[in-house]
Description:
Chain A is α+β, with helices and mostly antiparallel strands. Chain A has helices spanning 2-17, 46-52, 105-116, 154-157, 219-227, 270-278, 319-331, 352-365, 377-384, 408-415, 427-438, 441-459, and strands at residues 26-31, 61-63, 71-73, 76-83, 86-91, 132-139, 142-148, 182-188, 192-197, 210-215, 233-237, 247-260, 295-296, 340-345, 370-375, 394-401, 462-474, 478-479, 496-497. Helix content of chain A is 26%, strand content 24%. In chain A, a hairpin with a 2-residue loop joins β6 and β7 (142-148). Chain B folds into two domains: 2-72, no CATH class; 86-303, MetI-like (MetI-like fold, Orthogonal Bundle), CATH 1.10.3720. Chain B is built from 14 helices and no strands. The chains are: A alpha+beta (498), B mainly alpha (304). The interface between A and B is large, with 48 and 54 residues.
Amino acid sequence: MKQTTLLAGVLLATSALSPAFAQDSGVTIVLGEEPDLVEPCMATRSNIGRIVLGNISETLTELDVRGDEGLKPRLAESWELVDDTTWRFHLREGVTFSDGTAFDAADVKHSFERAGSDQITCEISRYYEGISITPSVVDDLTIDFKTDPAQPILPLLMSLLTIVPSETPIEFTREPVGTGPYVLSSWEPGQSITLERRDDYWGAQPAVASATYAFRSDPSVRAAMVQTGEADIAPSISAIDATTDMDRSYPNSETTYLRIDHSVAPLDDKRVREALNLGIDREAFVGTILADGTQIATAINVPTTLGWNPDTEARAYDPDRAKALLEEAKADGVPVDTEILLVGRTANFPGATETYEAIQSMLSEVGFNVRLQMVEVAEHEQYYSKPYVQDQPILVGAQHDNSRGDPVFSMYFKYHSDGRQAGIADAKADDLIERATAATGDERVALWSELFGYLHDDLVADVLLFHMVGHARVGENVDFTPTIATNSQLQLSEIGLK
Amino acid sequence: MKKMLGKRAVSSFVSLMVLIVLVFFLSRLTGDPAALYLPVDASEAMRENFREIHGLNDPVLVQFGRYLSDLVQLDFGDSLRKARPAIDVVLESFVWTLQLALITMALVTVAAIIVGSIAAFNVGRPFDRFASVLSLIGASAPDFWIAIVGIVLFSVNFGWLPTSGTGTVWHWILPICVLFIRPFGLILQIVRGSMINALGSPYVKTARAKGVKNRPVIFVHTLRNAMLPVITVIGDQAAALLNGAVVVETIFGFPGVGKLMIDSILQRDFNVILAAIMVTAIAIFIMNILIDIAYALLDPRIRA
Lengths: 498, 304
């Protein structure tokens, strides 16, 4: 008797040690940051989106990040432009929410209005700012969105709007209801979140029956968890730990750059900005401080973005030319000896401090007077967003993430003179941004392309540095390839089981 | 004894009040929560709306008044980020920290007293030397390093223990071992020193001269007297653990109050910061009183 109890105890203990295998076709995913909410209308925030987007909640359209299909239908089967300012979406039939109610156009209307309500601060709504959008239900499965001004990328914007049932109150929910293939089954704050597969999902049944999310802020612990089999996927581990066969690197859509405030001397001089660009040996960082596979950037957006300009070439490291340009500017009375403050954000990415220290030393070598200041996120924000500190020339080291395929999510606030984080105020750039935002098709591609070239080659708007890579560790029992979107969403239906 | 306890309670209460005031104003000096909560490209209108909803636009004194009156009703408001009562968030994690602290301190106390006493009895012999080196290493090794090495050794290489998390008894072993080391090293030294002193004192010599055996000498005479300084240090160490074993909680993914506090500070989640500080302050306040009682029980001079 005693022996049986002991044996049972040992078995129980061993099974508890490996929760990943505790049940068939369940996976454990270990993330760095626990979401504070599991609220569909906050799904554009990465720590929430990774759990909610495409798993619990779905959107009308979705961007294909694995293939090259572009924008794909999800809850909408098709869409068309009825007139210049009205988009019509035809919704999928036979879709139900996890609470059993049927999905229809009224739910879409409510989801849109809820996300934009001033009673709660939904993050999704920022993508719709500055455009007046009025949804109107045509019939149960058809909805129109009337926009002012015309909004050519409304279908793309709809890939961000998570749909909730029309009964959802306008306050943050802790029990999200969606049309997705999974439903939130348990949430133990500080420990884990579990999603279970629904039987009545409208689409194909995913292979994974349940997913448990664990949260560990230390990247080496996350890596260790996959190695020991406690977890199956760690979407983000540090480059230093990425040494095993289980590790995959992927472009994580972050672009590192130095934002220049063009209004303060000597940074208002183009030669000085060019010297900044020529004085940094970007190649030297790749494979040393930064991971192999890091790409040198010529635009704020990654090359897969619409209109990305292949003709812009990164300025090669040329310290002599940089020195000559500085001398030339100095001869013309530009105060090139003024101290320039380089602001970096601590722990912004692995190796951030080392990267900025190296940049500071490279710039000093070509004759700049640069002082480095590493600050934490809240203080960084004070330098990064308007109103700017005006008393001295400042370079702000920062990262920008746009995996959504269109530069519109970056250009206005990074380069338009009214943009919150724009370092430039240039009439031609403003005009290009405004025209590209309103354009469609080939014209849109051409305008964005022209803008990318103009910013990099003519204006020398900023010091573009790198398109970064992330590292994921994937266990032996699952089949998963991280993509450029893995930072912001992780659809369980994309995970295969071996 | 009542008078002594009353005095102590009053002085602790005053410190608690000062803490309440300080924390409120200091946390508001450190930055705008709207800037952190909302994405960088959020518009000024969104920020303004956010401040309005959360009452951050009112004058600081008005906010302070509201905070005080809520405090009296033990209402800390909702967590800015988690959209539920701050006190619930804090109590949930405090239970974890409390368990961790109690188990660790119980083990540390027993182990340090036993090893320290044996060392004191064997001053200068190999056991004493060994214990001293052990305690020195324990008191000086950084815990994040011990934690990572522990995970690599016992989880990754040997596969004996889970790397982190909660759920089974096994999950507690590594965090408790890491937390154990530093206070153990420290308290061991105090016990040893204090016992050596007590063993050399006239009353022990008298007892021995009267033919009292070793065991009653240790347990009845020496240990009781040697415990006074030890209790002070145990109280100190326990208070440090109650404040949250930040490093250990972070590395092992333990949902304790230390990790919660750090996260809330970084996110400027004021209500949670205040609730967490109040809960831990009250816990430490209660623990100080318990230590005073223990003191009074051990030393009749204090009772008077």
